[in-house]
Amino acid sequence: xxxxxxxxxxxxxxxxxxxxAYAGDMCRNIRQLHNFEPPATSDEVRAAALQYVRxxxxxxxxxxxxxxxxxxxxxxxxxxxxxLLEHLTTSAPPKSREVExxxxxxxxxxxxxxxx
Length: 116
Fold this sequence. Notes:
mainly alpha, 0% strand
């Protein structure tokens, strides 16, 4: 039987809930980038684009034969995502990453139990 990572171990490897960037292993979710103060950075936009391409392609790391297509897709999606974020409007007040992180941690504590 193959070793399976726990959600907590995966989350720790990827970064904190509501973190600013994706790193390491494939993350399960693409995070919301619109209506935060300060606005999403180009690194956050690129990380979301990378995650989208990973999810759609089914590969966290493409083969050498597919690397150029993979990288091109990430850049194009990052560009159009940045364009979208620049043009979206809302009447809602901007969200705080710290407040959203705390809310997510509270939801996870209820859902998975408080870590010991």
